[in-house]
Amino acid sequence: MKNILAGTLLAILVLLFTTALGLAVIQLTDFPYILDVGLLNISENSGLPDGEIIENYKAIMDYLSPFSEKAFELPSLAHSARADFHFAEVKALFNNLYISAAAAALLLAILAAMKTVSKRALRISGAVTLAVPSVITAAALINFDVSFNLFHEVFFNGESWLFSSQTDSFITILPSTFFMHCGLFIALFWLTAAILQLIIGYSDVKSRNA
User: Fold this and answer.
1) pLDDT, tens only, 17-55
2) How far, in whole angstroms, is CA 201 from its chain's centroid?
3) Angle at alpha carbon of residue 80, lines to 160 and 42, rounded to 5°
4) How many CB atoms lie within 10 A of CB 134?
5) Per-residue pLDDT for 132 more than 90?
């Protein structure tokens, strides 16, 4: 029971850290958006040239950067007061995630230095961490629209995340499939962490049974 509790708590710390790490890579590198511009025909669907699309996307990412004090402004796309409110909510969510992830990273570093986590707890953590991307990926592949809507209903206020292209033209450069790609990209970080934990957790077991 003690190992199950320790493994579950460890998995939560790992998931917080890897989620923030994946999100940071997305924000810093513009991946996978830079590929999705072509793959999802965003230029054709929005009627905008690639350069203008990227410029506005970068403006969104700059606003959402951790603890940035910039106002939400887009170079050439319209946005309403509802959009301002929604992106402020997104920014708060991201900041809270980064703060939680920093605390998680500190705790993980302390646990690693003290070597207090048992191999069984590590294996349990790896299994829990592996289960999360499996469930998320399955849900996204089965019905992404339902998963996408549920996420927004849980984390955001009312219908502030629902936009019209007439008043919020930026929505034409942010297709829902792009967000699915972001989710799958972050899931790769979860998967990597799970595999590493399982490898380390089972390493001594295999050597003893050899």
Assistant:
1) 999 999 999 999 999 999 999 999 999 999 999 999 999
2) 26
3) 90
4) 14
5) no
- Please give the pLDDT value at position 136: 82
Mean pLDDT of 113-135: 92
The structure tokens listed for 137 are 């990926």
Distance from C-alpha of 3 to C-alpha of 116, rounded to nearest angstrom: 11
* Domain assignment of residue 188, given as a range: 2-209
What is the spatial distance between Cα 111 and Cα 101, in angstroms, rounded to a whole number?
Answer: 15
**What region does 49 belong to: left with phi over 0, alpha with psi -120 to 50, or beta?**
beta
- Point out the least confidently predicted range of 31-35, 56-60, 66-70: 66-70
Q: How many domains does the chain have?
A: 1
Residues 196 and 11: their CA atoms lie apart, in Å, by 12
Report the alpha-carbon angle 179-159-176, nearest 5: 15
* Contact yes or no for 199/72 (Cβ under 8 A): no
Token pair of 49, please?
């040239």
Q: Which amino acid makes up residue 66?
A: P
Q: What are phi and psi of 11, to 5 degrees?
A: -60, -40
Quote the pLDDT of residue 67: 78
